[in-house]
Amino acid sequence: SVSVTVCLCVRCSVYSYQDEEGQTKCKPCKSGIVQGNQCIEADSGCAVYAESLPNIGTLHWSEGIPGETATVTCPHGGMATRVCTKKGSWARSDVSGCHSEASNEINKIIEDSDDSDKVKNIGDFVAISADTMAPSDLVNV
Hints:
Elements: E1 16-17, E2 27-28, E3 34-35, E4 38-39, E5 49-53, E6 57-61, E7 69-73, E8 79-83, H1 101-112, H2 122-132, H3 135-138
């Protein structure tokens, strides 16, 4: 008599794996780092961190998941992002979307300006202000 074994193997999704032969279900990989049929667990996620930046303020990062990008609201408006590396450490913050206290003050001046309908950006503001303000007025902006 001849015995035939049929393997009903399944292809696992990106964040799952199977390290045992003959299984029909995949195991979830919490770290999201799958190499071959192994889940590589990071030592831990990125730690909770308070980052104080000049002109921006303090950004409060909660625990990050390795390989994912975290987003926080900046103190004066806008958003910052930061990648939690696959090794479980924070990469440099991207604060290009944050507003500073100074930019908020300038925006308020633009909104309150008689020429607010003409002002689309800071360049327009400076051009219009040069005609209507004394240089001493710009010192405190």
